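W.,

You were right to be curious about this one. When I first looked at the sequence I had no strong expectations either way, so I just let the prediction run and decided to look at it fresh. Below is the sequence, 277 residues in total, followed by the output.
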Amino acid sequence: MNIQAPTHNPHAGPRRVCAAIAGLAVGVLALGAGPDTNAPAGRLPDPDRELVLQGRYVYERNCQACHGRWGDGRGELARDMFPKPRRLTAGVFKYHTSPPGKLPTDADLERILRGGLAGTSMPAFVAMPDRDVRAAIAYVKTLSSRWHWATNHAPSMELPPVPGWMNGDSERVPHAASGAARFAVLCAPCHGPAADGKGPDAARLVDQWDQPAPPADLRQPSARSGPGPKDLYRAILNGIDGTPMASFAATTTEEQRWDLVAFILRRREEFARESNP
């Protein structure tokens, strides 16, 4: 059974709204009632009913104000937020360890819940009980039909190890210099020559929902994609789904991508010194 939150229609009358809510409740309650023998090939099993019901409660208490009652990103607090809360109904996520275009793994979603997203209104739910985290993830997966199909899922990608030279200041210098030259060609039009997110193309960039999508200020101590060198490497390799950040897998080599990472890390260090003379 394909379970989705009903589409929100602010002009719907009370009867239609009540019917929509009732339909969602019936759908959630039907979870776990037994295997669907008519389910098409490639359709994943329904999630655990009790876990989804608990997840709905967790979502309503912690997520609904921003992500909206239906998961459409239109919560009561969303209007003044930038960037806007994720539209969970679209089933498109920016930050994940799975290949481009695939859904995030449960571990990806848990990392975002536990750690939040730097530079956004997404907080870190560090004290949330483990079962509530699992339940919230299970409920989020009922908000988009993309979660129901095996073809949209993939395990985390294996990335190459961080080069040994990355930990040596003197060894990293020539790689950062090489990365700076490549950054000027590939990245500066959006991220700016100084990696401050103020490139000449930055003002006109939008995401797939036509919302402004300014490039990241790469000088900041932590990127939204994650805190470490591998997270930067992954963003360069795969791009960021739903945004103008493209994949550079076809236009860079593994060594060149690590050189770019070295340059970004150098800019972080320089900016930290400039900010705290």
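Here's what jumped out at me. Residues 166 and 172 are 6 Å apart (CA to CA). And, maybe more interesting for your project: The chain has two domains: 14-152, 164-275.

Coffee later to discuss?

I.
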